[in-house]
């Protein structure tokens, strides 16, 4: 390697896999945002914790910034390497290390795919309940770094609730072993939670111990056609009252249009403005009767005009595809994305304000929105018109986002629900965090990463 810094890294860690192949640099230098041209120095593929520590110490000696890299399925520019950083890919650290049947914990390396975690838990008759559409490609380290949520937050919460312990290499190369799987540990600050959601700006997750739980009861999936936006939360309230919910999601007619164009099957003969997909316990006749009663009540009230309930696993998967296939169906348009949240009680008023804002801000643009309405999280995807150049498009979207942030502030919401701040949302961090909070965050980073080499420019 021609760069003397990389020559020194190879000398210090002779077993470390390094690549400067142009294809690897492009692949590992960007995430799903595709907004910043990738330009990393090289890609390092550590195989164990000692190599991660060696990389961080080398980076401190040479003043080289580091970008931790998982599956790079992020949507906020958090895994972008555009300024000569060394990308630290965790692809090789992808193993299950241990299972404890008494504690019901699974210890894994950070490069393991979420789907592999699900499969490993299932082998022991248990489940790791955090789930989302990118399960096959996203990696657990990235899930932890963004405190990922997904489609089952309504029952199980975010990633944070399922991390029993973490091993982390800080910005100085020190290894921290945090909480060690304890259920109770009243011994001061729980630094484990400081690293969850820190977007790789404080250190690199090198091992995680996860709590597992019992499989949920048998469930069914119901897809509902909803005629008006103001009926969505009425349907949710009725579902939460009558059913034991595992998930409650919604999407618009435009979202369904793109998923159908991507190969899914139309669920109804006619199109409708909004759709709800919900999964709920159906373990006995009483639960099934409650589901029927819920549907009939919604029809009588006029909140729902059509519906279908799954009668097999295959049909349930087909109904879920209509929701989970949205992001993939939009990828070719390089959409500008907003990922926002408000308290559940504020959803109806916020959605009304948001719909008016989007109609005014994007009068001739295809805007696709959907989300985890049961936990107050909405995803907005703005599709670039073919005749508009990308820079002009992003500038227009950022102007509308500034107005959206004003709306969120009125409703005490957040510009980032589950995708992190990264590069994309950094201008609006102050809408969610006070000056005092941001100053403390900078101070914490200064302690754990005094040279500012851990994923610099992201979040702060």
From TrEMBL:
Occurrences of domain FAD-binding PCMH-type (ranges): 36-215
Cofactors that this protein relies on: FAD
Keywords annotated in UniProt: FAD, Flavoprotein, Oxidoreductase
InterPro entries attached to this UniProt entry: FAD-bd_oxidored_4_C (IPR004113), FAD-bd_PCMH (IPR016166), FAD-bd_PCMH-like_sf (IPR036318), FAD-bd_PCMH_sub1 (IPR016167), FAD-bd_PCMH_sub2 (IPR016169), FAD-linked_Oxase-like_C (IPR016164), FAD-oxidored/transferase_4 (IPR051264), Oxid_FAD_bind_N (IPR006094)
Pfam families for this protein: FAD-oxidase_C, FAD_binding_4
GO molecular function, one term: oxidoreductase activity
Gene Ontology BP, a term: respiratory electron transport chain
Similarity comment: Belongs to the FAD-binding oxidoreductase/transferase type 4 family.
Record's protein name: FAD-linked oxidase
């Amino acid at each position: 390697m021609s760069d003397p810094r990389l020559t020194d890294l190879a000398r210090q860690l002779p077993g470390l896999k390094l690549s400067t192949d142009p294809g690897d640099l492009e692949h590992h230098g960007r995430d799903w945002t595709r907004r910043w041209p990738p330009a990393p120095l090289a890609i390092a593929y550590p195989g164990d914790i000692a190599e991660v520590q060696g990389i961080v110490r080398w980076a401190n000696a040479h003043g080289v910034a580091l970008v931790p890299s998982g599956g790079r399925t992020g949507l906020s520019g958090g895994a972008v390497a555009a300024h000569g950083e060394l990308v630290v890919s965790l692809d090789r650290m992808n193993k299950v290390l241990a299972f404890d049947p008494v504690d019901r914990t699974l210890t894994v390396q950070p490069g393991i795919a979420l789907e592999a975690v699900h499969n490993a838990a299932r082998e022991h008759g248990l489940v790791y309940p955090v789930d989302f559409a990118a399960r096959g490609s996203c990696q657990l380290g990235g899930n932890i770094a963004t405190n990922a949520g997904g489609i089952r937050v309504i029952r199980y919460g975010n990633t944070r609730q399922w991390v029993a312990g973490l091993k982390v290499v800080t910005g100085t190369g020190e290894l921290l072993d945090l909480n060690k799987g304890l259920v109770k540990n009243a011994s001061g600050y729980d630094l484990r939670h400081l690293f969850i959601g820190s977007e790789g700006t404080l250190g690199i997750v090198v091992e995680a111990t996860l709590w597992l739980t019992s499989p949920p009861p048998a469930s069914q999936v119901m897809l509902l056609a909803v005629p008006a936006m103001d009926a969505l939360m009425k349907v949710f309230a009725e579902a939460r009252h009558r059913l034991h919910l595992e998930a409650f999601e919604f999407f618009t007619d435009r979202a369904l249009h793109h998923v159908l164009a991507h190969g899914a099957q139309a669920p109804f003969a006619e199109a409708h403005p909004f759709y709800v997909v919900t999964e709920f316990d159906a373990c006995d006749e009483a639960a099934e009767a409650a589901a029927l009663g819920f549907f009939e009540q919604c029809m009588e009230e006029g909140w729902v005009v059509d519906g279908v309930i799954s009668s097999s696993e295959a049909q349930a998967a087909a109904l879920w595809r209509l929701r989970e296939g949205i992001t993939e169906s939009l990828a070719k348009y390089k959409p500008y994305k907003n990922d926002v949240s408000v308290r559940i009680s504020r959803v109806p008023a916020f959605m009304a304000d948001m719909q008016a804002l989007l109609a005014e801000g994007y009068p001739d643009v295809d805007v696709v929105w959907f989300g985890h309405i049961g936990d107050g999280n909405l995803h907005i995807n703005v599709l670039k018109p073919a005749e508009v150049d990308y820079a002009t498009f992003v500038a227009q979207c950022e102007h509308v986002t500034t107005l959206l942030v004003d709306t969120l502030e009125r409703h005490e919401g957040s510009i980032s629900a589950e995708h992190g701040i990264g590069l994309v949302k950094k201008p609006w961090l102050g809408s969610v965090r006070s000056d005092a909070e941001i100053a403390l965050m900078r101070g914490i980073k200064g302690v754990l990463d005094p040279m500012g080499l851990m994923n610099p420019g992201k979040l702060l």
